Amino acid sequence: MRTLRQLSWFFKAHWKRYAFGIAFLFLIDILVLLPPRLIGNTVDSIRNSTLTGTELTKTVFILLGLGVLLYGMRYMWRYLLNGGALILEKTLRERLFSHLTRMTPSFYNRKRSGDLMAVATNDIPNIEQTASTGVLTLVDSLFMTLLTLVVMLTAIDWKLTLAALIPMPFLAWSTAYYGRLLHERFYLAQEAFGEMNDHVQQAVSGVRVLRAFVQEKADVEAYRRVSEKTLERNVSVSRIDALFEPTIAIIIGFSFLIGLGYGTYLVITSAISLGDLVAFNLYLGLLIWPMFAFGWLVNVLQRGGASMKRLSELFVEEPDVAEQEHPVTSVVSNTVEARHFSFTYPGTDKPALRDVTFTLREGETLGIVGRTGSGKSTLCRSLLHQYQMEAGSLFIGGVPIESMSLTALREKIGYVPQEHLLFSRSIAANVAFGKPGATKEELLNALKLAEMGSDLLQFRDGVETMVGEKGVTLSGGQKQRISIARALLLNADILILDDSLSAVDARTEESILRHLRQERAGKTTIITAHRLSAVQHAQLILVLDEGKIIERGTHEELMQINGWYAEQFRRQQMEQDVAG
């Protein structure tokens, strides 16, 4: 019942649909009580030799009319209740997807992709079943049972009715016991399904790595173990699930046995008529569905409850970064400033950035270099406000980024991350991802600026070439350049290139940087790189080491300092000369 209470918001929003659906159920339950009484009266008329052709014809036509009426009503309640449940499923999917798009990187660091997929594909349909089958069985089984018992007690014989109900307490106990076991086992089964999903997702994404290291057999064996675990947990659910129907059938069988035996005795003693006994057994037959429905209800509610618990665990998660009540939605200036900025990733103790201070004026380029793990990408992500941080330490246009609307902040910044994610669409669709209404001329110009013009000539379909999942059909350099083109198409006020030129050769890199200087004159650019030639033209270069700035200045100033930057630059120049 807790699951239904948790869905009360939906039932309130669609109360008319459910009210009419339940009303049709009530009418059906009332009307199905008429045929047993009519048949019982007909049996008594036959036994007393008082049945006439007119009465028989009238009874037959009444039964036919009831059949047609019940057919129409059953169609209506199915349309209303099942249709409402499908609306719930659609609503939950939209809410889940919207919720996932709001979550910050730390959430995805904690959650596995397989579990999130399992919630969307398995758990939400289970909740939908609760809103359709669960509501049906709850209302129909309770109302039908009570109505039938009232008729049996008042219109047939109360002693016979009570005798037939003797086995029913065993039904209540067994379904409650099975329901508790089912809830526990189904929750574990869904967790195992999530693990299996996660394994498949990783195997498919990393299939080239698996083949490169000849680990296909090992991965197949690992998948076999995961799938066997999923199978075992689902079999344990099925074992409990399989007990419901036989238990209910045995208990109902005892009720029929008592009803038939004791009822025959009452007929012999003339306490009830033969027609009453026939009607009683037909009424008892009507209780078969509510009894099975009750067991089914427990099954559905427990499955729905376990799924609702998993979904609720996601919905209670809140983004680490929350907007202020009245955020700034517009910033004119494109200056970027850090004032003694320090940052530590959630769940860690060691600071990723320590006391970082710099000022980047509008239209300037900032270069950020340093060893691997020195904090370059962390600084870029911090400017996007992906994590909660100390207030009053990062500014854009003189406004603290925590005071800015997240939408306004991210619209102001074009970002090309290290991981170049391309979708399984055409090159044009990938480039226009942030600007769906872009013209073909704009797309081609962005690709030209990213030095993809000559590559397009090699593709049979040009910009309409499908790139495959995650750009599998493209080289690393092509994926990087398409990602750069996607950011350039937005023409954002601030552009961040996070080591986005690592997979292109030096000549292509030089061309892209030249295009950037020409096209982005007067706009702010931030570039992180391992190859120092990518930041040589920057007005300010920061050298990071273990999250701290150890050197700063222009290229010429850093060469005069003769520190880490100068040493790395000379080494890279020598390597380039040797390679040339």
UniProtKB/TrEMBL annotation:
Domain of life: Bacteria
InterPro entries assigned to the protein according to its UniProt record, in alphabetical order: AAA+_ATPase, ABC1_TM_dom, ABC1_TM_sf, ABC_transporter-like_ATP-bd, ABC_transporter-like_CS, P-loop_NTPase, Type_1_exporter
Residues passing through the membrane, by range: 20-39, 59-77, 135-156, 162-179, 248-268, 280-301
Domain ABC transmembrane type-1: 19-303
Parts forming coiled coils: none
Subcellular location(s) per record: Cell membrane
MF (Gene Ontology): ABC-type oligopeptide transporter activity; ATP binding; ATP hydrolysis activity
Keywords: ATP-binding, Cell membrane, Membrane, Nucleotide-binding, Transmembrane, Transmembrane helix, Transport
UniProt GO cellular component terms: plasma membrane
Membrane-topology annotation of the record: Multi-pass membrane protein
Domain ABC transporter intervals: 336-571
SMART domains with a match to the protein in the record: AAA (SM00382)
UniProt keyword Hydrolase, yes or no: no
Protein known as: ATP-binding cassette, subfamily B
Lineage: Bacteria, Bacillati, Bacillota, Bacilli, Bacillales
